[in-house]
Amino acid sequence: MTTTEVTPTHASLPLTGPRLPQWAPALVGLLAVCAAGLLAMLLGWGIVAFAFLAALLFVVALPLWSVSVEGSRGAVDRLTTSLIWVAFAGAAIPLLWLIWTVLSKGLPAINAAFLTYDMRNVVGDDQGGIYHAIMGTLIITGIAALISVPIGLFCAIYLVEYGKGTRLARWITFLVDVMTGIPSIVAGLFALALFVLIFGPQIRFGFGGSVALSLLMIPVVVRSTEEMLRLVPDDLREASYALGVPKWRTITKVVLPTSLGGIITGVMLAVARVIGETAPLLVIAGKTDSVNLNPFSERMTTLPVYIYYSVTQPGTVPFDAPPGAEAPGIERAWGAALVLIVIVMALNLIARLVGRIFAVKKG
Amino acid sequence: MTTTHETEPEVSPPSQRGDRIFAGLAKSAGLVILAALAAVFIFLAVEGIPGVNQPAETYAPLSSFLPYVGRLLFGTVFAALIALVIAVPFALGIALFISHYAPRVLAAPVAYVVDLLAAVPSVVFGLWGARALAPQLVSVQAWLGEHLGFIPFFAGPASVTGKTVLTAGVVLAIMILPIITAISREIFAQTPRLHEEAALALGATRWEMIRYAVFPYARSGIVSAVMLGLGRALGETMAVALVLSASPVVTLNMISNTNPATIASNIASSFAEATPAKLSVLIATGLVLFAFTFAVNFAARAVVARSERKFSR
Amino acid sequence: MAKSIDVSDLDIYYGDFLAVQGVNMTIKARSVTAFIGPSGCGKSTVLRSLNRMHEVIPGARVEGKIMVDGQSLYDPSIDPVAVRRQIGMVFQRPNPFPTMSIYDNVLAGNRLNSKRMKKAEQDAIVEKSLRGANLWNEVKDRLNKPGMGLSGGQQQRLCIARAIAVEPQVLLMDEPCSALDPISTSAIEDLIHELKSEFTIVIVTHNMQQAARVSDDTGFFNLKAAGQPGQLVEMNATKKMFSNPDNEATEAYISGRFG
């Protein structure tokens, strides 16, 4: 018998550690906000300094109180918990701030004319619009999707259905992952270098932008499709083989339909990602003030590029404008930014909706 | 090396042609991707290599390629590191918040909102950073310059517009936050429940449980998430181009009017007026950026792949 | 000084779902109490509520009273972390910390509580606990190897060593042998016999022979009806349960005519 030495010595169970009351974090938080607010008012600090001070007070005060009551372990737990809550709050602020800024500055700029006019011959604060940029965005992104989806889809099929475990497939998987990290401007330079070599140094056209965006979009499509295909259970494939159905028909009739919802979601999220790209289009698609619906000739403006040029070349504030008014370019930039965000968010929401609808059907 | 081909069921002869065509299509799509990646290197090299040896005035204010790209590379890495230093603690905090701390009603919406943050186009971030964030940071940077001026980073004099590399770093940090959060959140959430409960059943507090069970499991995942964030920050163009009025300088001062440009922002801002000679220089810098981010991403993915093998064993 | 546990009117919820209803029982000190019953009837849930591990699952909560040593476990003044230190737990599947050596695994709980221990003190605890778990002779030459390198049965005994290293009052075991082969199972059962002189042990098991072999008292859990919450049907001395139970459902289950 070797266990006789294990003799617990506790006379009674110390189950009650000294604990702070449940409302302690709330109280400390309130006090921190009050103290920081008071100081900020007295010293005339801005909102940033106030928020920073309040967070700092909270993160310091709660563990200090805790260490005197609960001991060091409890205090460390309190400290990390408060830090994590502060991190969450700190990250929420810029997002809310950004959305609020874009909404409040963008909404006044938007009206029917803004959405249906282009910028041709627009001088100063004449009514200009973003019609040409919206069309450019839709055309260039649409063509990029037309290029990327088949390549991405087939590549994913190869990775999951045909190449599983081969050295080539492992390399492709790895390089696709690496490709997701290509800087977008490099994609633009690549398209530029490619077409300059073919058409000469002055070439700028929408299709080149599509090629650049495809380079960014393909890896996203491959990754999401691959994941979806892997979710299809092997039983389904085997059931189909057992019926004597050849492999490619199994893929097109069984595997793809089963994972269709997820694939569509992935494609739409990929589109949402590249639709906001600026840098590659700045380089290869160029900028124009007029509507151009032909992607194979002449420059083509997209919304992000429009925003960029509106900000960098904002024009001057008109003489008769009320004080505090911004240059017309800046106002249009905010308007275009709002439109762009609405498009991106709508794509995201629809993508998730599609995913959910198909998922329900499956289950 | 065994492949699944050998275990494929025998198919009837007439359909074999269809199968072969389909398999060929799939495989060539994969090869197209490899070819595209190679093409990026090749075309950038063909167009960019002449840029290494251009007349001295092309590199104004410098006189040759290496110092030119060197200073830009410094600016790129510097801005990206500022972004990382700011973003990583927040990203890990939010990831832990979603995976282990948030009340259940809050976790899913927060995760969703972080994903939305990733969807905001970079040009909008740049616009917001330049027009909304920068003015707010003026007083902060003035304070830093006044009180922490002895640290080289805050040597000042503080910019009065707020359009500094520090501001650009903050914007970059917000932009790379989602990717770091998303990856580390997933890894945190994958921590086996068994190990978490083992720690809790020993009488660990929540933080001790995270240290015992979650972090050891997630370490390599965090490393790669951070490196992927770094890759994103290195290549980001618009946020920096819109926030900074930059010049190719080397300075650690984060709050002054003279700010180092990054490779990407330099391309964007010099591109419109570039002569063919300058264009090839810009493409050459792009090639350097590509090689650099490629190396960072390559390393990050290699770490992930290695750890995946380790855990699947 | 092992402790007895008194449970009265215990209801356990997962969110709005009532999983277990109206449990009343007394678990005697320094004895082995087994919980048996068909799958999904709440045995493990009740076990996990005894050291407040139940509430680790989001949305889970408990109503009713669990008294240990005159203190109510679910009183607001009770620190769940302290509870889990006093009431150890061994899980269904062995779960040594994958990044730690055998040595560090055993000490994991102690290191949480007292940051500084002398090396000799640590060595003593490791040896004592591993001996207590009947594992010492098998691993004494490779204490610095990772705990994941052991066989399943050894890993489970390592987990028991880790649980008893903090000298808890009560040891809860949630189907500790369900993932093990018969030889490892028998080793663990022998160990339970030895441990009961020091600890109050509660074990959940699917294996009725195991309950009969190791336990002094047995509680039989069952669902009231399909879709209804689980309940404690009968609790009695194991000998009586397996020879002449009070309840017909118990007899039906034990004799294999049901479940």
From TrEMBL, chain A:
This protein's record includes keyword Transport:
yes
Annotated membrane topology is: Multi-pass membrane protein
Q: Which residues form the ABC transmembrane type-1 domain?
A: 134-351
Q: Which domain of life is it from?
A: Bacteria
- What GO MF terms are annotated? phosphate transmembrane transporter activity
The subcellular localization recorded is: Cell membrane
Q: Which GO terms describe its biological process?
A: phosphate ion transmembrane transport
Q: Where are the transmembrane segments?
A: 23-41, 47-67, 79-100, 130-160, 172-199, 205-222, 254-275, 333-354
Q: Which UniProt keywords apply?
A: Cell membrane, Membrane, Phosphate transport, Transmembrane, Transmembrane helix, Transport
Q: Which CDD domains match?
A: TM_PBP2
**UniProt family annotation:** Belongs to the binding-protein-dependent transport system permease family. CysTW subfamily.
Query: What is the designated name of this protein?
Result: Phosphate transport system permease protein PstA
Q: Which organism is the protein's source? A: Nocardioides flavescens
Gene this chain is encoded by: pstA
TrEMBL record, chain B:
The cellular location(s) given in this protein's UniProt record come to:
Cell membrane
Per the record, the major location class is: membrane
Q: Give me the segments passing through the membrane.
A: 21-46, 72-98, 110-130, 164-183, 221-244, 279-304
GO molecular-function terms, A-Z: phosphate transmembrane transporter activity
Matching InterPro entries, A to Z? MetI-like, MetI-like_sf, Phosphate_PstC, Phosphate_Transport_Permease
Tell me if Protein transport is a UniProt keyword of this record.
no
> What's one GO BP annotation on this UniProt entry?
phosphate ion transport
What membrane topology was assigned to this protein in its record? Multi-pass membrane protein
Keywords for this entry?
Answer: Cell membrane, Membrane, Phosphate transport, Transmembrane, Transmembrane helix, Transport
Q: Which GO terms describe its cellular component?
A: plasma membrane
Q: Which family does it belong to?
A: Belongs to the binding-protein-dependent transport system permease family. CysTW subfamily.
| Role of this protein | Part of the binding-protein-dependent transport system for phosphate; probably responsible for the translocation of the substrate across the membrane.
The molecule here is called Phosphate transport system permease protein
Recorded name of the encoding gene? pstC
UniProtKB/TrEMBL annotation, chain C:
Q: Which UniProt keywords apply?
A: ATP-binding, Nucleotide-binding, Translocase, Transport
The answer to whether keyword ATP-binding applies is yes
The record's annotation in PROSITE patterns points to: ABC_TRANSPORTER_1 (PS00211), ABC_TRANSPORTER_2 (PS50893)
Query: NCBIfam families from the entry?
Result: 3a0107s01c2 (TIGR00972)
Record-given protein name: Phosphate ABC transporter ATP-binding protein
Matching SUPFAM superfamilies: P-loop containing nucleoside triphosphate hydrolases (SSF52540)
Looking up InterPro entries in the UniProt record yields: AAA+_ATPase (IPR003593), ABC_transporter-like_ATP-bd (IPR003439), ABC_transporter-like_CS (IPR017871), P-loop_NTPase (IPR027417), PstB-like (IPR005670)
Q: Which GO terms describe its cellular component?
A: membrane
Q: Which GO terms describe its molecular function?
A: ATP binding; ATP hydrolysis activity; phosphate transmembrane transporter activity
- ABC transporter domain mapped to chain residues: 5-248
| GO BP annotations, alphabetical order | phosphate ion transmembrane transport
Superkingdom is: Bacteria
Alphabetized CDD domains for the sequence: ABC_PstB_phosphate_transporter
